Amino acid sequence: MAIVEPDGLAVLNAQFTTAQVADIISKTARWVDRKTFDLLPTWHPEMWRGALMYKNNWREPQMNTNRKSGISVHKTEGNSAANSALTYALGSAKSKRDGGSCCHIWDHGDTKFQTSNFVAGDSRFYSCVANMVLLPTPLKAFTDSMPQIKEMLRIAAYHHFGWYCDHDVLESWGYLENAGVVPDFYPSDWPDKTTPNKPLPGVVPLNTKIRKHIDRRCRKINDDLENAGEYYPRKEVDETLAYWSNRNG
Fold this sequence. Notes:
There is one protein chain. This protein is of the alpha+beta class. The chain has helices at residues 8-15, 18-28, 34-39, 80-89, 140-145, 147-161, 174-177, 208-227, 234-247, and strands at residues 31-32, 54-55, 60-61, 63-65, 72-74, 100-104, 132-136, 203-204. The mean pLDDT is 89. The termini are far apart. 38% of the residues lie in helices and 10% in strands.
């Protein structure tokens, strides 16, 4: 008779090694080009997870009404803007993203999902394309619940994009403190300290379509700063744009 184990990860680890999980992720991950990131690091500086949403060009609250109770509540951002950013930064479209999920790379490490993701709740990092990777949806659970896999993605992203998240809720990053020692299961064809310029497999090169998406987003950001309504979060947008401007010199 099968026994229900108290720890689902222990059940998984009894059947699959971390190296096996890492291998399938390394073969299926899709990454934004470093050039795309440099052109537009964060695509929606006006958004973060949990942000209140508005319509009519930021002039009217967007409400969700329960069909049964009739009670309306102010709608909040989940992961829609981040998904959109990653989709267009990869030169894709929502209709072609079936079966793929946007996975944030940096968070504060709560694998039990009992506290808010403060990093995704920050407009500087929520729609940052260096903080996301596209994975087949069934694999998203690995990145959300296995710290080892999350660390693997962070190392790859750090060398590929030349950036790591410095949100103040995060502790100092051990990878940098330990002189860039990678885990045993780290994919051999991914960049590390000894081969920082090694091309990361699965990168979608910057192309004409992606450049058009970038130009469209930049025009929209500038237009919103000038013309959006009273609820537009100009303070957060200004702070986010300043952060990335300083990062890029």
